Amino acid sequence: MSRTHPSEEHEHERALRRGLGLSRRQLLAATTGMAAAASIALAEPAQAAAHRRPLIPRGKRGIILYTVRDAISRDPASTPLPSGFRRVLEALAGFGFEQVEFAGYRQHAGSEGGANLETVEGARLLRRWLDDNGLRAEGNHGFIPSSWPLTTADVDRFKQALEIAGILGLGHMGTGSDPTGSAYKADWDLAAAKWNELGSIACAAGIRLYTHNHDAAYAFLLDSGPLDEQGRPTRSSGVRKLEYFFGISDPRRVYFEMDIFWAHVAQFKHRTFTAPDGSVQTDVFDPLGTVQPRAKRFPLFHAKDGTSNPAGANGYDMVPFGTGDIDYTRFFSGLRSRGYHNPMYEQDNAPGTDPAQSLRYAELSYRNMAALRG
């Protein structure tokens, strides 16, 4: 290695001082300061990341049990892996989850408690397992009557579902479906009348009723233009179906669970509509922009991730949370009501040929939910 002679170092120093117009003491202070600044600059990104707030608070990190339905429904005698509600809840709590959302109350008949826990006794058993593992149940995708007007049998069954929800300590009860699959205003009017009445019954029981929405609910309402052979409109004024429902459903009685994955699918799929004059208009859907004006009506989210696939019908392929292309940092950073919403990790395709896959994905997704900062 070559070394610089001390006299050469002094000459370099003198030349630098002359060029900068500094004394030797000033030059020493400046170079020391620059070195310190460089050190600080290198440390700042790591320190900043460490001090940014979690975008999903610890107590709000949840999972809908549909994601691990294969584990809940398999025969515990056939595998050493967690099976049935009790063991699966233990595993999820071990990963760090503190909230769950049910997707019904059935499990394998060989699991503790038997096949059907949708009873008062079954709900008490589930509640004990939740409490034992420090878990809180926030919702359930359960029974919503399909008929309208409501029958006595419908109301009785709905009230039974509310009783079970109360035992479990659910703050919310809902469905995995849109209020209606129709594209027409008249059908959404009927849906709002039913949901307002059901919401009133639920509210009297201290529970908020919610509807879970897929991309079709964000398509455009057919509400104008020439009529078809059945007398229905064929064009749109540009109002989205769920947007119309927001306005005609009671904000004190009817709530929503946005599936953020399907909302991004809607952004990909439902971009244009045919206006009353026959022209094609473009309107790109913004999931965050839909939540913001009515944030309190979205107590629940499905935090489902996807990788971009423009060649596919939906534009995205489902993957574990935090491994896809949906910008969850932007979404959760943009929420005005931080700490209010309850995001539930969901992945429809988590079960696979590997019997451990859905629980492994759940553990990975919890870690990624916890790591999200903003």
Automatic annotation (TrEMBL):
PROSITE patterns: TAT. InterPro entries: IolE/XylAMocC-like, TAT_signal, Xyl_isomerase-like_sf, Xyl_isomerase-like_TIM-brl. Keywords: Isomerase. Residues 90-345 form the Xylose isomerase-like TIM barrel domain. GO terms for molecular function: isomerase activity. Gene3D superfamilies: Divalent-metal-dependent TIM barrel enzymes (3.20.20.150). This is Sugar phosphate isomerase/epimerase. The lineage of its organism: Bacteria, Bacillati, Actinomycetota, Actinomycetes, Streptosporangiales.
